[in-house]
Specification:
The structure holds 2 protein chains of 2 kinds. By secondary structure, chain A is α/β, with parallel strands linked by helices. Chain A is 34% helix and 18% strand. Classes of the chains: A alpha/beta, B mainly beta.
Chain lengths: 383, 157
């Protein structure tokens, strides 16, 4: 039998453009309390905590030291991953699969509204000698990549815009989402140019929010929940960090992370076996690129499928039913958490107006964002 | 457990404005030192090659990112290339609007397996084509400091 890990409880805040009423600690606290409540556990029952934190995003040079108190993890085994929540999720899964831990808590947070200089901060992620001195918005990296993606004939400009239209419409049905809207392809194509072909509406707008999940072993799952969602596969990968030598057409690291997760989950033919997907859509075209990297559509087919409604809520493979980053908001290191959360709600049949019928197997994919090449993928099942 | 009270009036919201002044000196290391010295003094582009992987790196490096093998020799490549991708950029790094949009290109560098990100000069945004041949435009030797800004950009060849 394959090894699997249960998600026994989820806690989350709404995902909003600002969150001035609470501190970043209280955001996590709010999510943590809900997660513990749902799983019927207290912090003292937890064997290990895995947090997600990036110093510059949190505004501390040792932000990992400030992760534990709001989780009830003071004087407990705790570690922090600078990456996406889904990288932390992978660590949590590994802890449980060692057989030495039964209950592990995984956390991520975005308090993007606290940051006064987000573009500069993203620019600091570029090579200081070769790239930073050029003084352009870091979205120029996405502009170059999207230009080549279109040039390769992998999608049309309109198909990329259709991703935005779909995701913002899905977000209207998600009470947690901060950026739902009913717009048209023309709204996207006529929005302000940022780094053409990337325009303002192609970009997931920043948002705040926190997610905490209680993971547990198969052994103790029945005592914590009667509606477990199972993580059956997880994988991660990173391409070259340098702009000079990385691949600019395909999301190679997503392909490798996906294959790793599928292998573990025993998924042989993703396009046939997966019922729904939550993938990174920080920039509109990335959703198409990521869907193809995950083998959910053939090379060059995701754009047409989007245009034809195949990835809509009623389609054959609904993609980003939550609204994705474009509709929920860009949550930085919490982005993957929002995706896993959506799959948990969908697989439990608790997604309300945006419920995907017959959701049994879901794939969540995270990308660490511009200008990175780090990806993580998880396969989740209802039973 | 749980938040039983919240701030619910904007006038009650307060905050502390913090700043983290961070400054660094980034040493080039062996590979970039050689690259920028050749650029500054001879106007040449130095590459290095991993024979095992068949990959030519530009700028020159001292190890291969694929096999971690040591790259022993450097050699000059023309510095010319072809536009692999481009973007018309309307914002500065702080998101303020640019007075005039600039064209940034990813240039597939001839004789290498690498691409350079830099400005395109001497061409209007509407005239740029993927596949266009370009050549580097360097600052005058006396103005070169041994950094990426020694390259003004790439212009149609």
């Amino acid at each position: 039998m394959r090894e699997k890990v249960a998600i026994a409880g989820v806690g989350y805040t709404a995902f909003t453009s600002v969150s001035p009423g609470v501190s970043y600690r209280e955001l996590t606290y709010e999510a943590a309390v809900k997660a513990y409540e749902e799983a019927g556990v207290e912090p003292k029952d937890v064997d290990s905590f895995v947090c997600t934190s990036e110093d510059f995003l949190e505004g501390y040079s040792i932000s990992d030291e400030y992760c534990n108190d709001q989780l009830g993890a003071v004087l407990k085994p705790v570690q922090t991953i600078p990456g996406d929540f889904m990288h932390s999720l992978a660590v949590g899964v590994m802890h449980i699969l060692t057989g030495k831990f039964d209950i592990v808590v995984v956390q991520a947070l975005s308090k993007a509204s606290n940051m006064k200089t987000i573009p500069e901060m993203i620019n600091f992620a570029l090579d200081p000698v070769l790239n930073r001195p050029l003084d352009v918005t870091p979205y120029a990296v996405a502009g170059l990549e999207m230009n080549r993606f279109l040039e390769e004939g992998r999608a049309t400009r309109e198909q990329c815009a259709a991703v935005v239209v779909k995701n913002k419409a899905n977000a209207l049905l998600n009470p947690l989402a901060g950026y739902g809207a009913s717009i048209t392809v023309d709204h996207v194509l006529e929005s302000e140019p940022v780094a053409e072909p990337v325009r303002l509406l192609d970009i997931a707008p920043y948002a705040d929010g926190a997610v905490v999940m209680v993971l547990c072993s198969e052994r103790v799952a029945p005592s914590l929940t009667d509606r477990p969602v199972w993580i059956t596969g997880i994988g991660w990968s990173t391409d070259s960090p340098t702009l000079e030598s990385r691949d600019w057409v395909d999301a190679v690291s997503v392909r490798l992370a996906g294959d790793m997760a599928y292998r573990m989950a025993g998924v042989k033919c993703p396009a046939k076996e997966v019922d729904l997907a939550e993938v990174n859509d920080e920039i509109s075209f990335k959703e198409l690129q990521h869907l193809e990297a995950l083998r959910l559509f053939d090379e060059g087919a995701a754009g047409k499928a989007t245009e034809d409604g195949k990835t809509s809520l009623e389609g054959t493979l609904p993609v980003n039913p939550s609204g994705g980053g474009l509709g929920v908001g860009h949550l930085f290191e919490c982005s993957g958490a929002q995706k896993v959360l959506e799959l948990v709600l969908q697989l439990r049949g608790e997604a309300g107006a945006r419920q995907v019928a017959g959701a049994g197997v879901g794939v969540a994919q995270a990308w660490r964002g511009i200008p990175t090449t780090s990806a993580a993928v998880a396969v989740l099942c209802a039973d | 457990m749980g938040l039983t009270e919240r701030t619910n009036r904007n006038v009650d919201l307060t905050y502390w404005e913090g700043e983290i002044p961070v400054n660094y000196v980034y040493t080039y290391g062996l590979g970039l030192e050689a690259f920028f010295r050749a650029l500054k003094e001879q106007g040449k582009f130095l590459a290095s090659r991993c024979e095992d992987c068949g990959v030519t790196y530009l700028p020159a490096r001292v190890f291969c990112e694929r096999c971690l093998g040591k790259l022993e020799t450097t050699f000059a490549v023309p510095g010319t290339g072809k536009v692999y991708a481009y973007t018309v950029v309307h914002r500065n790094v702080d998101e303020s609007p640019k007075e005039e949009p600039v064209v940034l290109a990813l240039v597939d560098m001839d004789g290498t397996d690498c691409r350079f990100v830099h400005y395109l000069t001497g061409v209007e945004p509407g005239e740029v084509k993927v596949g266009m041949a370009v050549k580097p435009v360097l600052k005058a030797k006396k103005d070169r400091k041994g950094g990426i800004e020694d390259i003004v950009g790439f212009a149609p060849a």
